[in-house]
Amino acid sequence: MTTTLAARGAATPGPATDLAIDARGLVKRFGDNTAVDGVDLQVPTGSVYGVLGPNGAGKTTTVSMLATLLRPDAGSATVFGYDVVDDAVAVRSLIGVTGQYASVDEDLSARQNLVLFGRLLGKSRSASKARADELLADFALEEAADRPLKDFSGGMRRRLDLAASLIDTPPLLFLDEPTTGLDPRTRAQMWETIRKLVAHGSTVLLTTQYLDEADQLADRIAVIDRGRVIADGTADELKQSVGTSTLTLTPVDRADASTVAELAESVLGEPAVLSAEAGRVTAPLHRQDLVPDLLIALRERDITVDEIAVSKPSLDEVFLTITGRD
Ligand SMILES: Nc1ncnc2c1ncn2[C@@H]1O[C@H](COP(=O)(O)OP(=O)(O)O)[C@@H](O)[C@H]1O
Ligand SMILES: [Mg+2]
Asked: Which CATH architecture does the domain made up of 2-233 adopt?
């Protein structure tokens, strides 16, 4: 479940405490596959930093190197000034990591698992019990606390995973896709929990596939694709670069799609993207008030549109815009 089982307390933050993480040119290869291809990350202490990218982008591999679980093939990184390779023990004493999937003792209850982790971290039995009670309350797991874990839902497991990583509140916490696959309500609960945690002063590095999640939680975001950071900035900066929304138009007759794309471009003043197979046209939409003008222009050409949709920017659109590919 958590990988911070080494006793904590030895190290205090090192010399470069204004940066919780300073990574330069990190590389990790698995055979021919360069999973992480020169990643730079500067994470200010006290912030929530989002690493946003699709499946396979290299998020977990990056986190694993920063958390001393994998050795970089090239580049270097420090955590509070400690080198992740040379000072791995010090780094481990300052971090907490939650896995993408919890793996814990299924026959033990949530409470027993938390107490066990507390004991493994070197806490006394009574301190472990007290901390378990606090965490069960914080994560709304009190009712289920004494049921065996095999009866837990995915959302409850995820909350327990996060709880376990907070038995000692680490100065730096890695949350690797804490809400992937959760239903919207549980996601929202999880966001609340993460906000509480940040309010307590931890620095958080959060990986996610969801732009809205990074938007909700992160002070700064790095967009990662194919092992590279392709954009970074605040959520607002990224949104401005991808447009506030996306307009999707599907003409009844696919043969009209290229005309639709041309009209969309001239009316909206944005480069439209035509997806040939789907006969669908998408365009960034900065000004919703121009949509009626576009519809009128289409009607003047006798083009009937089967489907018209306005969507908030998603990770897909960020990628489409930043990388120029579908
Ligand atoms: N232990 C491993 N052995 C071989 N390939 C791996 C291993 N871990 C990850 N990869 C590969 O590295 C790439 C990045 O994976 P990962 O870091 O897990 O991405 P993400 O967390 O963004 O989904 C993928 O192509 C994945 O298949
Ligand atoms: Mg991953």
From this structure: 3-Layer(aba) Sandwich (3.40)
Structure confidence by residue, pLDDT tens digits, 107-150 = 889 999 899 888 887 889 999 999 999 989 888 889 999 998 88
**Rounded mean pLDDT of 277-297?**
88
Question: Of 209, 135, 133, 126, nearest to 165 (Cα)?
Answer: 135
Distance 54 CA to ligand 2 centre (A): 9
Which part of the chain has CATH 3.40.50.300? 2-233
Cβ proximity of 13 and 69 under 8 Å: no
Cα separation, 125 vs 18, whole angstroms: 35
For the domain made up of 243-312, the CATH class stated in words is: alpha beta
Task: Report whether residue 64 contacts ligand 1, using a CB cutoff of 6 Å.
Answer: no
Question: Which alpha helices (DSSP H) does the chain contain, by range?
Answer: 59-66, 88-92, 110-120, 125-138, 154-164, 184-199, 211-217, 235-242, 257-268, 291-300, 315-323
Residue type, 139: F
- Torsion from C-alpha of 28, 34, 38, 40, nearest 10 degrees: -70
Ligand 1 contact, 28 CB (< 6 A): no
Cα of 112 vs centre of ligand 1, distance in Å, is: 32
pTM of the model: 0.73
> What pLDDT does residue 106 have?
79
Helix axes 125-138, 110-120, angle to 10 degrees: 130
CATH 3.30.70.100 maps onto the chain at: 243-312
